[in-house]
Amino acid sequence: MKKALYSLVLLFGFVSYLNAQCPVGDVVLSNQTEVNAYTFTSCTTINGNLYITDNPSSPTIVDLSKLSSIQIVTGSVQIKNLGTSSIPGLGSLSSIGGNLDIESNNSLTSLGSLSSLNSVDNLFVSGNSSLLNLSGLDHLSIVGGIFINNNTQMSSLDGLQGVTNITGSLDISGSNMLSISALSSLSDIGGSLSISSTKLTTLTGLESLTSLGGDLSVSNNSDLTSISSLSNLQEVADGNGLSIENNPNLPTCVITAVCGKISSDFDNISISGNKTGSSCEGLSNVQAACSAALPVELVFFKGKPLSGIVLITWQTASENNNDYFQIEHSTDGKYFNTLGNISGNGTSQEVHNYQFRHPSPIKGVNYYRLKQVDKSRKFEYSDIISIVLDRREISVFPNPTKGNLEIAGDVEEANIRVKDSMGKIVASQNLDAHNSINLSYLPKGMYFIEVRTANQTDIKRIIKE
């Protein structure tokens, strides 16, 4: 009897031990039978991915209570083709290291069982035909990316009120989407923003958004009448795309980000198919409307080389709420750096003249533009101008040389490479304060001196005696 009891205790202990362990690698559950066979019922951390994907034609998963101890999944979680109205059994899940993908769950109406979740990389919610909103995700604040697409009954983004920062992109589409006001705390999107094929009439909820790192796209929203909620968005950065298309009731596109993009970077812009006869109908209409809305009437903006510097001058005929001008410089006409600021004259109907000296332009082509910033921090860019500074010819002497070689010209921070007649590099150094290089140790013969600076490369042939 004692032996049997002892064996029973050992067996119970062994089962408890197994249940307390965690699976190695991914967990894949594709029907209720597999869920029922899950033995790691005390496991709190899945070190891998968790896939819960049922048969779309005849789903069987109705009970996930055996997963109720899971708190952390270090990889991604996919929930697909379930036939239930909720996701029972994941109420303890608080952290997902990878993506959360909730897809094609046609009976799903609520995410309330995910109310403990506070950390996820990217959130994908798509093709859930009965899901009404995102309530249950209220504890999310910083997310890698959010993609909400084709959930035909979803009318709002309720549940995302806590999101303040999206480091990736935000993509919203849905034929019944009526409100995105739940995004009212969102201030920064590191990637792109796309809003398409919704029933939104305004973009209320995006008033706090000030920073966008990627493209801006607003398209195919049949009822949209205003994008003014994006008025605090500072810019669509040079090199990124701007698309406002096929919003047939949208009458105006005049916001800071749009006007700034049009004035500074004409590439990757598509504006068409918006309200007929309006200032947003096409690109030319938006250009005209943005010009009329400019807070500063700029008479001219020009520059000229002057004793090794560039003198920038501009004149305004009127100013409205003008705070300051920011002078920006580029060496390629695409990527600009700030040189300095000049205070504006607030609101004025008088002519004002301004100037700025750039003490260290490059030799060759320099590009300049003005960024005019008003007191509410809205801004506009001027046209880009270019100023050419002739470079000083690089010379090497004496030639022929017995050893010491002097290098003259624009050689600040230059790198010197010496190649023999076969093209092999035989010496390399950065120029010192004396702008010279010692070649006395090289055999007699012909060499090529390659002088490399930030702005040019020159090659000179010399003879070593």
Task: Give the SSE layout.
Layout: H1 2-20, E1 27-29, H2 32-36, E2 45-46, E3 50-53, E4 72-73, E5 77-80, E6 95-96, E7 100-103, E8 122-126, E9 142-143, E10 145-149, E11 165-166, E12 170-173, E13 188-189, E14 193-196, E15 211-212, E16 216-219, E17 242-245, H3 256-264, E18 269-272, H4 283-293, E19 296-306, E20 309-330, E21 337-348, E22 352-358, E23 364-374, E24 379-381, E25 385-389, E26 395-397, E27 404-408, E28 415-420, E29 425-430, E30 436-438, E31 445-452, E32 457-464
Parallel strand pairs: 1-3, 2-4, 3-5, 4-6, 5-7, 7-8, 8-10, 9-11, 10-12, 11-13, 12-14, 13-15, 14-16, 16-17, 17-18
Antiparallel strand pairs: 19-20, 20-21, 20-22, 20-23, 23-24, 23-25, 26-27, 27-30, 28-29, 28-31, 31-32
Query: How much strand content do the residues show?
Result: 35-45%
Q: Globular, elongated, flat, extended or rod-shaped: what is the shape?
A: flat
Q: How many beta strands in the DSSP annotation?
A: 32
| Biggest sheet features | 11 strands, parallel
Quote the distance from N terminus to C terminus. Answer: 107 Å
Structural class: mainly beta
Overall pLDDT, averaged? 87
Q: Indicate the percent of residues in helices.
A: under 10%
Which stretches are low in confidence, meaning pLDDT under 50 for 5 or more residues running? 1-20
Which strand order do you get reading across the main beta sheet? 1-3-5-7-8-10-12-14-16-17-18
Helix count, per DSSP? 4
Radius of gyration, Cα only, in angstroms?
Answer: 32 Å
